[in-house]
Amino acid sequence: MKKSTLLVSLLTLLTITARAQIQMTKEQILFYTAEWKGERMADGRPKVSDNLLKRLKNISLEEAWGIMRKDGYNNQFEGNWQIIRPEKPMVGRVLTAQYMPGRPDMDKPIKEKGKAEGRKGNTNSWPIDLLQENDVYVADGMGKIVWGTLIGDNLGNSIYAKSKTGVIFDGSVRDLEGLEEIEGFNGWVRGFDPSYIQDMTMTCINCPIRIGRAIAMPGDVVLAKKEGIIFIPAHLAEKVILESEFVSIQDAFGHQMLREGKYTPGQIDQQWTAEIKQDFMKWIDQNPARVPMPRADLDKLLKSKNW
């Protein structure tokens, strides 16, 4: 081989090695989440406010799903989960990880790259080290249950200490009893198994991943409830929350009117007349505790509503 050819080959190899990424760069995350114009985390993920996350817990999953579909987001829901605490909804900012079947010629450079970057332990602990409060660790574990347990109670304690939330794994976990002892920790998983993770490699952190029939992006907001989970793009989070809250106000008013017999189901279920709208505004003034959003947000929303 000529010296010039050898030099080109070595430079090419060094360039590929330098560019190889376990964790997506801030610039890559900005590329995938360009529609978000607000604050961002240090790693580049959109940072939807804590206040909106708190309000999201009270939103109906079906309402949020319907609002997103109007904007063309049809692949954001996934159901059929095993849930550690099904009575407790979970919300947070998504931090993603992708796992693939183990392969020696892939495992070795990934672990060497991780070591060079200062990452500690097995690859399944690397995403945990990056968690911030109100993050939710979301992983594509290929649906693997036996030998596919991404965490046990030790890693579960670390996850909760950092995030104060839990996990969503298209895969499994072990040590269920130990995980249940972590007060506040929750998880949506495909199954439970006493085996430990084997023949799997974590290949990417904060990249777009598939969770069943849904796609999850770093910085999405996740709403997890008994019936399933929904991933909300950060730039739609405020819209989804406001419009869902407005629907809940309408429903509360409509149900009361139906119980009192003031209006018929046909009147409430169709576009409201001027009389119903007027009664609705009076009802809002008389029931401020039933309005979950700031009044300024409600007034702004009403101006754009054709209801």
Automatic annotation (TrEMBL):
Binding site residues for substrate: G152, D153, N154, L155, R174
Gene3D superfamilies in alphabetical order: Ribonuclease E inhibitor RraA/RraA-like
An MF annotation (GO) of this entry: metal ion binding
Residues the entry annotates as binding Mg(2+): D175
Cofactors (names): Mg(2+)
One of the GO biological process terms: methylation
Signal sequence annotation: 1-20
UniProt xrefs under InterPro entries: RraA/RraA-like, RraA/RraA-like_sf
Alphabetical keyword list: Magnesium, Metal-binding, Methyltransferase, Signal, Transferase
Annotated protein name in UniProt: Dimethylmenaquinone methyltransferase
Organism encoding this protein: Arsenicibacter rosenii
